[in-house]
Amino acid sequence: MPRKPQLDSEKSLSKAALKLRLLKSLKCTRRYERELWRSGVRFVAGLDEVGRGSLFGPVVAAAVILDPAYRIRGLRDSKLLPAKRRALLVESIREHAIAWSVAAVDAARIDQINIYHASRLAMLEAVLQLAPAPDHLLIDALSIDFACPQTAIIHGDAVSASIAAASIIAKVERDRMIQEWDPVFPNYGLASNKGYYTRKHASALRQYGPSPLHRRSFEPVWNSASPQDVLEFMLGGACAPEEAEEAAVEIEAGERVISAASSGD
């Protein structure tokens, strides 16, 4: 029996592109938040981080406590939103949320404690800034060292409104930070790649070496003196739209970091 064209098409897609398709199919709601509100929990905070797989700059985390009485429409995983839409949503989140906060852990600290622990540290620092303090945390697939009940949700930024809101705030803040560094380090194309691995970024690393804000513990950075095109496998397949390509690279880079942390690297 001949293969169906759709199956052949799916097999030709990279793992990151397939995951991007999955995330687009998920529905972001306040279901998790409503269950907690109904049980008597007052302040439910969503947490997420951005920049885990980047080669440059900080990892940025945000925490958001949504108002049960005000629904912000259009919330979803920040990787699935165009920049203009994120900019509009972040203003709505800041205006209507009960509380929100942002924290960052820089590249030097990432190199000291590894990206997994740096991500958790950024989330903890974001939570500690919240006023009022949260009664329950919703986190994208992990937990932090904070003394209150926590729920880890797989693909949390795609299914939980609170986590999605945190993802959007963290993404907008980190993009702003990287944009400001672009004219300081113009050789790396930071304005377009946001510090993630691309062919041009890898080429610039080999030609100019890493900047002071590159993560020296990441292989494409410490191996940048090599004449070979290192870590070709980190590219997740070409996507024509700029936002989709950035999202696929971010997904795949983040998954590799999680895998390395789990194996003890």
Task: Please provide the ordered H/E string of secondary-structure elements.
Answer: HHHEEHEHHEEHHHHHH
Shape: globular
Classification by helices and strands: alpha/beta
The CATH class assignment of the largest domain is Alpha Beta
Number of distinct helices? 12
Are there runs of 5+ residues with pLDDT below 50, and where?
225-242, 261-265
CATH superfamily of the largest domain: Ribonuclease H-like superfamily/Ribonuclease H
Radius of gyration: 19 Å
Notes on the structure:
By secondary structure, the chain is α/β, with parallel strands linked by helices. It folds into 2 domains: 26-175, Ribonuclease H-like superfamily/Ribonuclease H (Nucleotidyltransferase, domain 5, 2-Layer Sandwich), CATH 3.30.420.10; 179-262, no CATH class. 48% of the residues lie in helices and 11% in strands. It has helices at residues 5-12, 15-25, 31-38, 83-96, 107-113, 115-128, 156-159, 161-181, 190-193, 199-208, 219-222, 242-262; strands at 44-50, 59-65, 99-105, 136-140, 150-153. The protein has a 5-stranded mixed β-sheet with strand order 3-2-1-4-5. A hairpin with an 8-residue loop joins strand 1 (44-50) and strand 2 (59-65). The radius of gyration is 19 Å and the shape is globular. The model is unreliable at 225-242 and 261-265 (pLDDT under 50).
